[in-house]
Amino acid sequence: MTVQTFNPSNTQTTSTQATATLALPVESGVSIKRLYIETQGCQMNEYDSSRMADLLGDSHGYVLTTDPAEADILLMNTCSIREKAQEKVFSELGRWRKLKEQNPELIIGVGGCVASQEGEGIQKRAPYVDMVFGPQTLHRLPQMLNQYHDNKADRSTNQKISLVDISFPEIEKFDFLPEPKVEGYKAFVSIMEGCSKYCSFCVVPYTRGEEVSRPLDDVIAEIVSLATQGVREVTLLGQNVNGYRGDMHEGGVCNFADLLRLVAKIEGIGRIRYTTSHPLEFSDELINVYAELPQLVSHLHLPVQSGSNPVLAAMKRNHTIDVYIEKIKKLRAVRPDIHLSSDFIIGFPNEGDAEFEDTLQFIKDLDFDHSYSFIYSKRPGTPAAELPDNTPEDVKKVRLSRVKEVLKASTIAKTDAMLGKTLNVLVEKSSDRQDGALIASADNTRLVQFIGDTALIGQFVTVKVTDIRSMNLVQAELVDA
Ligand code: SAH
Ligand code: F3S
Description:
This protein is of the alpha/beta class.
């Protein structure tokens, strides 16, 4: 197999020609080319996948399908945050191989963080993969596809040529993505790429590169476009959004607090979420924005990873639990009803019983809502992978289940506490559980069911909670319309 390193600079002409020819069958109704995208991992990947769909729809007329068996191209947007996620890639690719055996014209592409990490290694293990692209090069998919077709048309070689482009061309990607197309009332907006925090356990800085912020105007223009298409809630995405430093066209740099202020001014945007942020950059200025902007949800996901200082130090999180507690105290002073969630890594090297008990106590003290917890997964190439780890796997599993139990009890208690409360909710759709009812979402992500006219879909309404159905669903009645 010849691995051809993809060079976008010499594909400009090919791109225009092939776009024109490939668009024809769709326009003439002869055949529709179908695209299937499997998305693994985080919301960043979800965002990237929807942009890939927009991109290939515009450039080559591809239409999304939910059935891989009827697709002409299969793309996998992968995650490598933990070993399990990474293993999933090759087992899934094995299934796709069978589809390609039945349909040799099928094109298979692998993107995302595993692609970024493994590069050509993907095709060594799975030679039937035609294209490998990284999180920062997905905008070059149309050109890669053109090049793929050109290579195929070139009969002078019988060798399989595969395309690999996993470079980090700064923030170029966003300049090549079309305007987002949306369905529904919520949308993700990526405001920055990568992470420069280098927590000792984490692959993100290596797979997605260092932090690069999108220019302010680009972010605002994207949100304005979403709002005119009916979007009412945006989630600003990045690995460390409060490290946002967006260039402004008039010069200068916009920080995250100011970005939030500007987003709140966009007509139609009634609710702003963001994820994820790092405690170190959770500044006083950002806390004050919670006092200023009602659009900013009363829900904060602020990963802490551990409630033990020695573990935090070994993780290179660069703060102590006191710093975290202090910030949350200040935040609760301006937003008493804020729901706080977090990520926890259990079984990090040298987490002994005492460190684990500290984490458990910390979780109870801080009164977290529905948080995520994971057993530490050793990632090749990260500094923590070098640390000796003497804790047996079954001990880690017991610890994880104890953490999950405490977190679940807290989620249930928080939902129960919603009874009788008046909430501002975004109405999203008709309920399929109760006739005449609608489903809305609350700030704290609980679903809220109430009787109401379908004309309310897409609007914010005030409801009063009358019953608790499950830890994720409450019943309510409309207070105003
Ligand atoms: N930007 C986020 C984290 C992104 S990764 C932050 O500021 O923390 C999402 C979550 O995956 C992390 O918060 C962490 O809890 C978990 N995670 C990352 N690397 C991991 C590893 N090697 N093993 C287990 N969990 C990990
Ligand atoms: Fe990973 Fe730490 Fe950044 S968890 S994404 S290196 S803040």
